[in-house]
Design brief:
The structure is a homotrimer. In chain A, about 25% of the residues lie in helices and about 30% in strands. Chain A has about 150 residues and is α+β, with helices and mostly antiparallel strands. In chain A, the strands form 2 sheets. The first copy, chain A, has a 5-stranded antiparallel β-sheet, with helices on one face. In chain A, strands 2-7-4 form a 3-stranded antiparallel β-sheet.
């Protein structure tokens, strides 16, 4: 039984952009020496999401448009109401990102568990693992935990 | 390689309330003796969800309002139509919770896999693990499975 | 420590139908010999989802109706716009399934991690594991990875 944990850092280009992590996942598995087992991909953030789907510009545009219509940016968010808010206000410049939290909660895509066979993630033909940034872009961490034989 | 499974019981205060489980998760990891590995948090229920996000009243109010607008309580649910329904009717008083099932299915937040390092869950600075109750409150179970070295 | 990975194939009856996988999950756990541990259920596809909830016709109808209202089929999808699209076009007959990708991304239900005790998945009384097909029906694979003692 082997296991290893690796944290990588990525910086998405802009808000609502996607960042492909599939090659990083593959590398984390290779470097772990695990050939049969599973990999956990974990996002330690609250305003972005880890998605597994096709990497195709049209589908990504469609998803971005749909999610922004379901959880619009131009409505009231209590999280952004500095006249009401009292918690977690230790940042110099508090971001207006209530919408991003709600989008992240709706997706609930903080972690994925992906079986590993022959040293490769068992992703389907059209599946890629990617980060979806829903806040203003900044450096993000992704944690891969790989375990097995 | 160690592993341990722990089931805890919690009772949310009311419908659409949140119940913080982060300290319970930390304790489950400590008690397992695992310092490097991962923890699975699993919810064995069909009308509540396990969420990982910021614990801030405003963001939680925003999410509650958004989800209730997307999946309203005051529309027809076949699950609650006792003139049609024939399955799983062994309860004395069948709850009117069709909306809760739909909310739970939309979130699909039954389990999370969280890497563990130095005996702690690798949650980000703003991340907390919490239960979101979408039905009338009752006792709920949460299962933690921790594994690693 | 034992682990085993099993891939099964199922063919849903039609678009927006549900396919119960609970017995297959149970069998995968039994066949692995694991009595205490966890099981990962993974869907290597991009237009269907793995759900854990009650198996009841009404709730399933309610969810189908709600999701189709939130992500309708009869609006524009860039993924289906063959005048714009340039990527991943190696199929003879490209499916018009932009809506299915968006539904799958919104659900983000590609994998579940389920603790195992006494050789059984620790599913709650009302929980079943099932596939939700959101595209035209075809053969689908489901991967179970079971690990533990």
């Amino acid at each position: 039984m082997k296991s290893s944990t690796l944290t990588i850092e990525v910086t998405p280009a802009k808000r609502f952009s996607y960042f492909d992590l599939t090659d990083e996942l593959r590398k984390a598995i290779k470097d772990s020496g695990v050939t049969e087992g599973a990999a956990i991909a974990f996002c330690p953030h609250t305003t972005c999401a880890l998605l597994v789907n096709e990497w195709e510009d049209g589908a990504q545009e469609d998803f971005r448009r749909t999610l922004r219509a379901l959880v619009p940016e131009d409505v009231y968010y209590a999280h952004d109401d500095l006249e009401r808010r009292t918690q977690n206000l230790d940042e110099v410049h508090e971001r207006q990102n209530g919408h991003s939290h709600v989008k992240a909660l709706l997706l609930s895509a903080t972690s994925h568990a992906i079986p590993v066979a022959a040293g490769e993630p068992m992703l389907g033909r059209w599946q890629r693992l990617f980060l979806f940034e829903m806040d203003d872009p900044k450096e993000r961490q992704i944690v891969f935990h790989v375990f097995g034989e």
